[in-house]
Design a protein that fits this description.
By secondary structure, this protein is α/β, with parallel strands linked by helices. It folds into two domains: 198 residues, Rossmann fold, CATH 3.40.50; 211 residues, RNA polymerase sigma factor, region 2, helix turn helix motif (Rna Polymerase Sigma Factor, Chain: A), CATH 1.10.1740.10. 45% of the residues lie in helices and 13% in strands. It is built from 18 helices and eleven strands. Helix 4 crosses helix 5, helix 8 runs parallel beside helix 12 and helix 17 packs across helix 18. It is globular. About 9% of the residues have low confidence. The chain binds NADP nicotinamide-adenine-dinucleotide phosphate. NADP nicotinamide-adenine-dinucleotide phosphate binds next to helix 3 and helix 11.
Length: 442
C-alpha cells in the first residue's frame, strides 16, 4: 500500500460506517448460533465457566507481530485452552506472522499490502486453510471476525481507528492498547461503545492501573487521577544537550521494552500527553482532574485520589503481560506469567513533577485537550509524522514539539461529532506537518 493508502481506505470505510443504522449492531449476538466451534459469547469471562462445558473464547489481535501483540499471544499460551486465536493482523513482519500462524492456526490474517501478502503465502504451512487479506479492509475483517468475542488492538498509530470502531459497533469486548484512536476520536468511540454495549478494557498500564483502583468506586467519588511516567531516558539530561539527542539514545528506554514509536513518545513525554487524553475519555474526567507525576522506578503504574483524601495505587513489575491478561480475563484474576513484585528489592519509590521546559509535548497535549474539537486529532497526526521523521533522521529531537505546536496553531478546529471531520483533520495535519518537516534541516 502507498504511504497514504490507509487514509484513502479510511475514507471509504468511514462512508460505509456512516451509512449503517445504529440498530444494525445494537442487538446482542448469539455466538453459539454463529455455527463456530468457539463458544464465544458477549461476556467472555462468563463464557469460560458455562456449567459443565468449557467454552474457548475467540480472540482477534490487531498488530500481533508487535510488542503488545507478541505479549498477548504469550498470555494466551499461558492461559491455554481458555482462548482460541481466530484472526491476526500484522504489517510487514511476515516471518513472525507465519510463525504465529503455525502455532495458533487463525482462520484469517491481514497484512499491510499485496507485496507482504505474496511473501506470506510462501511461508505459511501447506496444510493451513485460512484466508489472507490486506490493508484497511483486511484489518477491519480481522477486528470484526464473527468468532472473535474479544479484540485486542495492538497496532500502532491512527490506522487503528476504523477497525477499532467497527469492533465497538459489533458490541465486542475491545482491549485497547492502541491509544492513538482514543486521542483522535475518544468522545465518538466512547459514545458508540455505550450505544452498542461494547466493553472497553484498557491495556495501557496506567489506564489499566486506574481501572483496578476504580473497581467498586463511582466516578463522583474521584478527586483526581494521577498518571505516572518513568520520565524516559532524558529525565536528568541537561536541557542544553537536548538538540543533540540521537535516535539510538532516544530508543533506549530505562524501564519498558516497547515498539519504536511509543519509545520516542516516552522520551518526549508526548506518550504521557496522549495518555492524559486517553484517560479523559475512558474515565469521563476533565483535564484539570488528571495529573502527571514522574516516577522513575515504574513500579506504581498509576493512582486515584478520592474526595475523602484517600489515595489508591496499583503496583507491579514493569511487564505488559499483566495488564493484557487483566483485560482479557476481567473480572476474574488468575495466575499470570509475570514475576511478583518484591518491594524490598525496589527499596525506593520516588515522585517528581514533570519539567515543562525539557518536555513541552505534555503541555501541548493538555492545551489540545482543553481546546477540544479536532485539535487532539491534529496533535496526534503531527506527532506521528514528526516521530517518523525523527526516526528517519530527517528531524531533530527538539523539533518534534516545534512541528506539533506550529501545526496546532495553524489548525481551524471543528466539532468531532462526525468521523469525517476527524479524518479530514488527520489528513490535513499530516500534510501540514510534512511540509514543516521538509522546511527544517536536521
Ligand atoms: N509496547 C508497549 O508496552 C505499549 C504499552 C502501552 C500502549 N502501547 C500502545 O500499543 C500500540 C502498539 O505498540 P507496540 O509497542 O506494540 O508497537 P510495535 O511493536 O511497533 O507494533 C506495531 C504493530 O503494528 C503493526 N503495523 C505497523 N504498521 C502497520 C501497517 N501499515 N498496517 C498494518 N499493521 C501495521 C506492526 O506490524 P509489523 O511489525 O508486522 O510491520 C506491529 O504488529 C501503540 O499504539 C502503543 O502506543 C504499547
Amino acid at each position: 500500500m502507498d504511504k497514504d493508502g490507509w487514509r484513502k481506505d479510511c475514507w471509504r470505510a468511514a462512508a460505509v460506517i456512516s451509512s449503517l443504522q445504529l440498530n444494525t449492531f445494537s442487538e446482542p449476538i448469539d455466538w453459539r448460533q454463529a455455527g463456530t466451534v468457539v463458544g464465544a459469547v458477549s461476556s467472555p469471562a462468563a463464557a469460560y465457566n458455562d456449567g459443565n462445558i468449557r467454552w474457548m473464547t475467540g480472540l482477534a489481535i490487531l498488530g500481533s507481530t508487535g510488542s503488545i501483540g507478541c505479549n498477548t499471544l504469550n498470555v494466551v499460551e499461558h492461559l491455554a485452552p481458555r482462548f482460541t486465536v481466530v484472526a491476526l493482523s500484522a504489517g510487514q513482519n511476515v516471518d513472525r506472522l507465519a510463525e504465529q500462524i503455525r502455532r495458533h492456526r487463525p482462520r484469517l490474517v491481514a497484512v499491510a499490502d499485496e507485496a507482504a501478502a505474496r511473501r506470506l503465502r510462501d511461508l505459511v504451512p501447506a496444510d493451513w486453510t485460512g484466508e489472507i487479506t490486506v490493508g484497511m479492509d483486511g484489518m477491519t475483517a480481522v477486528a470484526t471476525h464473527p468468532a472473535a468475542a474479544i479484540v485486542v488492538t495492538a497496532v500502532v498509530g491512527g490506522r487503528g481507528l476504523l477497525p477499532t470502531l467497527r469492533a465497538i459497533e459489533l458490541g465486542r469486548r475491545v482491549c485497547i492498547a492502541n491509544k492513538e484512536p482514543l486521542v483522535m476520536a475518544g468522545e465518538l468511540m466512547m459514545r458508540r461503545a455505550r450505544e452498542c454495549r461494547a466493553e472497553i478494557l484498557p491495556v495501557d498500564s496506567e489506564h489499566n492501573a486506574l481501572h483496578q483502583c476504580l473497581r467498586g468506586n463511582t466516578l463522583t467519588e474521584v478527586h483526581r487521577l494521577v498518571l505516572t511516567a518513568s520520565g524516559g531516558p532524558f529525565r536528568t539530561l541537561p536541557v542544553e544537550d537536548f538538540p543533540h539527542i540521537t535516535v539510538a539514545q532516544a530508543l533506549r528506554h530505562p524501564t519498558w521494552m516497547m515498539g519504536r514509536k511509543i519509545t520516542i513518545d516516552s522520551a518526549t513525554l508526548m506518550n504521557k500527553g496522549l495518555e492524559v487524553i486517553e484517560a479523559r475519555w475512558l474515565y469521563t474526567v476533565p483535564p484539570e482532574q488528571i495529573e502527571v507525576v514522574i516516577h522513575p522506578q515504574s513500579v506504581v503504574h498509576s493512582l486515584v485520589t478520592f474526595v475523602d483524601g484517600s489515595t489508591m495505587a496499583q503496583l507491579g513489575v514493569a511487564d505488559m503481560r499483566h495488564p493484557i491478561q487483566y483485560a482479557l480475563t476481567y473480572p476474574e484474576r488468575c495466575a499470570a506469567p509475570v514475576a511478583q513484585l518484591d518491594l524490598t528489592a525496589v527499596a525506593r519509590l520516588e515522585f517528581y513533577p514533570p519539567d515543562p521546559v525539557k518536555f513541552p509535548c505534555l503541555r501541548l497535549a493538555y492545551d489540545a485537550l482543553r481546546a477540544g474539537g479536532t485539535l487532539p486529532a491534529v496533535l496526534n497526526a503531527a506527532n506521528e509524522e514528526a516521530v517518523a521523521a525523527f526516526l528517519d533522521e530527517r528531524l531533530r529531537f527538539t523539533d518534534i514539539p516545534a512541528v506539533i505546536e506550529t501545526t496546532l496553531a495553524r489548525h481551524d478546529s471543528r466539532p468531532t461529532t462526525h468521523l469525517e471531520a476527524i479524518l479530514a483533520a488527520d489528513e490535513w495535519a499530516r500534510r501540514e506537518a510534512q511540509q514543516l518537516i521538509a522546511e527544517r534541516k536536521r
